[in-house]
Design the sequence.
């Protein structure tokens, strides 16, 4: 009997372990050094080294050798990285993958950009990014698709197919699609520069550099997923912005063991050695390793626009695991040490305040993390400074520094006056918060429980407008949604106040009124926000659209969000489907332009729209201004990129407009009445 009981227990334990025992970690590593149909002057040296460096790093992370597929030229035993072989390898990997698995897709080599008229979604700059396989060829310098390339839409289709199987997919692209922002026929910059013993090769080609030839029909068809899958299980890292080039050079610098490596790949492997817990930790480590190398390259090649790495997706997810749940929702900002001071890459626009309590983190070479409390000493719009805590002053110069807030600042919290505790289940992203008002005179809103009749909210603060002072919602769920929307609105108003008087050169946003396919009128958003008390009423058949235009010569951190007449948060840019918060670089000659439909702004009732933009800082984490949506609460869908350094007067290089639309609406309806 006892033996039978032990057998039952053993079988139960086996069943419990089954869900994780068969979850696998797999990787596809692709390195293209040789473009066999192109001149050898365009070939690269490092991709073959990159895939082997990544393979060794993954083995140390627990991947098994049979689960790492390698396609690379110049690597013994590896298949050649031709376009057909790459698609076939992706298909095999997809077929082997099952729910709960983790997949890494890694690509190292050249990229280019061209206008793809068949692409369903058009980028703001109108261009499509392409990775060049070993056999790339075609009639180039026109809008025709290449042969022997993998397009950005192809990669997206493969990623969607993995996500549809509940596979966590991470992608790394140590490539770029640069040098073709100006698609002229003039001479292209050299691919290789510098002495033979310390040569730097640049990844990213103009289409005019490639040899023309008979373009074969595109026979490769990536999988089709009819419905877009939420990207809670997705991360991607890129070597540069789409208009930049990225180098390969001998790394580590001045080391006898140095050999040609892609800069992103080397930094990624070095950062992995510090045992990061999340993808954000990994990316922050990459960012910390870039500046010394970039500074050296800037001195050697002063006319080159050097890269800033890119990251997107659920960066707060655990590293190399299949989990859509973030390890932490508290922001962590990188910091730079100078003597006994720390400069933080976050400020008022991110929800930090003077004298705010924070926790300083220092990550050592072996991955050990040291922590100590501190307080913000000085603060500006985009930066803050504090003293290095005494307990951390003895740490070596190689430590990576970061700062995280202890709690939300009191100034941003929605203060609620009530006779009972706040409802359970309130959920907000930093810095928005909801607290009981200690002093009734300081309350922003009054909440009254009406029993079976619902809950009454009365606006007490001017920030919530005057169209209606009260609303009755039917249940606790509606009450939570309304309180969370009010807390977000208070933060949006503070954001607009922080940025008041700022101006972002080369950035324009305009509200347009359309009827069918005809634009009727347009007004600049800044003018609408400063002159008009509210957006004008629309006539029958009219709709509002927002037109955003960037000619600044820099990429921008851009957030467009709103609160509709029902009090629900509305994501415009980035949206819940996975769009990015980095708006592409544009110039006066080639502007980056995008229009957004705002159907929720067309309906009756009071609604708000915020447009917020700043120049993208190079080698920095995302700036989302503390703005989130209901969709983003479950999916940390962000994109981060570097950019051109802001102008000397960059502290006031900021655009902010908070618009209000008023309209008639009935009071007291179920979660749809006029809103405080």
Sequence:
């Amino acid at each position: 009997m006892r033996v039978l009981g032990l057998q039952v227990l053993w079988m139960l334990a086996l069943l419990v372990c089954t869900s994780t025992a068969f979850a696998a970690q797999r990787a596809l590593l692709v390195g293209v050094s040789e473009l066999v149909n192109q001149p050898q002057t365009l070939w690269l040296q490092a991709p073959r080294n990159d895939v082997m460096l990544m393979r060794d790093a993954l083995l140390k992370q627990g991947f098994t050798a049979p689960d790492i597929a390698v396609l690379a030229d110049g690597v013994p035993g590896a298949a050649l990285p031709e376009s057909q072989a790459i698609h076939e390898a992706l298909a095999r990997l997809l077929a082997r993958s099952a729910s709960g698995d983790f997949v890494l897709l890694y690509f190292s080599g050249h990229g280019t950009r061209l206008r793809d008229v068949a692409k369903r979604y058009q980028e703001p700059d109108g261009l499509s990014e392409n990775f060049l396989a070993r056999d790339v060829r075609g009639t180039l310098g026109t809008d025709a698709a290449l042969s022997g390339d993998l397009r950005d839409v192809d990669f997206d289709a493969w990623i969607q197919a993995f996500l549809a199987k509940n596979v966590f997919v991470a992608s790394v692209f140590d490539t770029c699609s640069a040098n073709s922002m100006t698609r002229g026929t003039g001479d292209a910059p050299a691919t290789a520069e510098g002495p033979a013993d310390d040569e730097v090769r640049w990844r990213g080609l103009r289409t005019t550099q490639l040899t023309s030839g008979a373009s074969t029909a595109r026979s490769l068809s990536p999988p089709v997923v009819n419905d877009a899958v939420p990207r809670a299980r997705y991360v991607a890292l890129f070597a540069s912005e789409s208009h930049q080039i990225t180098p390969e050079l001998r790394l580590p610098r001045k080391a006898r063991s140095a050999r040609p490596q892609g800069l992103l790949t080397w930094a990624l492997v070095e950062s992995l050695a510090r045992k990061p817990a999340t993808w954000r930790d990994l990316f922050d480590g990459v960012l910390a390793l870039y500046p010394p190398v970039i500074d050296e390259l800037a001195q050697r090649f002063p006319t080159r626009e050097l890269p800033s790495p890119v990251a997107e997706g659920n960066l707060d997810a655990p590293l190399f695991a299949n989990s859509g749940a973030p390890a932490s929702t508290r922001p962590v900002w990188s910091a730079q040490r100078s003597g006994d001071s720390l400069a933080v890459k976050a400020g008022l626009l991110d929800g930090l305040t003077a004298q705010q309590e924070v926790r300083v983190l220092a990550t050592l070479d072996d991955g050990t993390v040291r922590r100590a409390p501190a307080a913000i000493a000085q603060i500006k719009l985009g930066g803050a400074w504090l003293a290095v805590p005494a307990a951390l002053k003895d740490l070596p110069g190689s430590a990576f520094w970061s700062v995280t807030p202890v709690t939300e600042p009191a100034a941003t919290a929605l203060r609620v006056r009530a006779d009972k505790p706040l409802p359970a289940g309130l959920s907000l992203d930093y810095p928005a918060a909801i607290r009981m008002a200690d002093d009734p005179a300081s309350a922003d809103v009054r909440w009254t429980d009406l029993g079976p009749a619902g809950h009454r909210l009365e606006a007490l603060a001017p920030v919530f407008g005057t169209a209606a002072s009260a609303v009755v919602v039917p249940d606790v769920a509606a009450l939570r949604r309304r309180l969370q929307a009010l807390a977000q609105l208070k933060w949006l108003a503070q954001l607009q106040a922080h940025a008041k008087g700022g101006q972002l050169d080369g950035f324009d946003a305009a509200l347009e009124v359309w009827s069918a396919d005809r634009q009727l009128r347009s007004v600049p958003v800044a003018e609408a926000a400063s002159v008009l008390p509210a957006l004008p009423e629309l006539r029958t058949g009219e709709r509002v659209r927002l037109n955003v235009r960037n000619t600044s010569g820099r990429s921008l951190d851009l957030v467009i969000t709103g609160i509709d007449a029902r009090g629900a948060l509305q994501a415009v840019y980035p949206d819940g489907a996975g769009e990015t918060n980095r708006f592409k670089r544009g110039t006066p000659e080639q502007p980056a332009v995008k229009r957004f439909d705002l159907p929720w702004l067309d309906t009756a009732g009071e609604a708000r729209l915020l447009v917020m933009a700043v120049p993208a800082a190079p080698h920095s984490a995302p700036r989302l201004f503390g703005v989130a949506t209901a969709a983003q609460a479950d999916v940390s869908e962000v994109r981060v990129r570097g950019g051109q350094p802001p102008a000397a007067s960059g502290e006031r290089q900021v655009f902010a407009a908070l618009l209000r639309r008023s309209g008639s609406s009935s009071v007291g309806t179920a979660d749809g009445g006029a809103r405080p």
Remarks:
- The longest strand covers residues 128-137.
- The mean pLDDT is 81.
